[in-house]
């Protein structure tokens, strides 16, 4: 019981920390989106990524926290369908949005003479159709879960194949493999695009580094453009995504062919939330003024409210 309580407290802290960080990122970029700036097109992607992380933490972190405190069968049939659907939906949105962010960042740092520069978005309105497409795509990929998930309390005689207190009903084999194939293809395609864009950014950063060394040796003063610094942050973000994604995949395969160990299961549960928790830290570090700007904005609004009659 003590171990369950400790596990529940850790999950609660982990989930709360991630939600607060992502809300901070969400609010900051929503505020930046209102300001006139040349990079307005990148903010909807960052806002959408923070939203996907919040959905992940609420749909995956909170049920794990509640279950860790020993509360079983706290979800009914509709609750199971919503939680599992939102969790898989948020996973897909995270994959698509992270890949989209990598591609847009790679285009923004490409040389002006490059043919990729003509694909650079001119406004946020060029980003919204992609976000809408991601929601439609992932809804279609995950819609099968609304029919194949129910509450475990309604299937007491079927103890296996459970998720929290939710049960995956036996499904038509052909339909199950069709949707599973779509999920694998979605992840493979978007991660392939992410890898190609990340490799292109690494190549550009290497060329930029060589150019900077040449200028320093020639005793020229040179300041690194913000696009290059942003590219480094995005690369770190993509490394985190791939690390947590593939660690989760490897642990899933490991558990499929071996006896389940409580320590390994707990480790996997913590790691599945890693990207949603760590990504806002990278984004906050990317914009070091984030906290100061939000505090200044809150202070101005408070003074206006106090001075208004």
Outline the structure in words.
This protein is an all-alpha fold and 309 residues long. It contains ten helices and three strands; from the N terminus they run H-H-H-H-H-E-E-E-H-H-H-H-H. The chain has helices at 2-34, 43-68, 77-109, 128-142, 145-148, 173-217, 226-256, 262-271, 274-286, 290-307, and strands at residues 149-151, 162-163, 166-168. A three-stranded antiparallel sheet has the order 1-3-2. A hairpin with a 2-residue loop joins strand 2 (162-163) and strand 3 (166-168). Helix 1 crosses helix 10 and helix 6 runs antiparallel to helix 7. Mean pLDDT is 77; it is low at 155-162.
Task: Tell me the series of helices and strands, N- to C-terminal.
Answer: HHHHHEEEHHHHH
β-sheet strand percentage: under 5%
In angstroms, what separates the terminal alpha carbons? 56 Å
Helix content: over 70%
Widest sheet, order of strands: 1-3-2
Write the layout of secondary structure elements.
Elements: H1 2-34, H2 43-68, H3 77-109, H4 128-142, H5 145-148, E1 149-151, E2 162-163, E3 166-168, H6 173-217, H7 226-256, H8 262-271, H9 274-286, H10 290-307
Antiparallel strand pairs: 1-3, 2-3
Helix pairs in contact: 1-2, 1-9, 1-10, 2-3, 2-9, 3-4, 3-6, 3-7, 6-7, 7-9
Q: What attributes characterize this protein structure?
A:
309 residues; mainly alpha; 10 helices; 74% helix; 3% strand
Outline of this structure?
The protein has 309 residues and is an all-alpha fold. It has helices at residues 2-34, 43-68, 77-109, 128-142, 145-148, 173-217, 226-256, 262-271, 274-286, 290-307, and strands at residues 149-151, 162-163, 166-168.
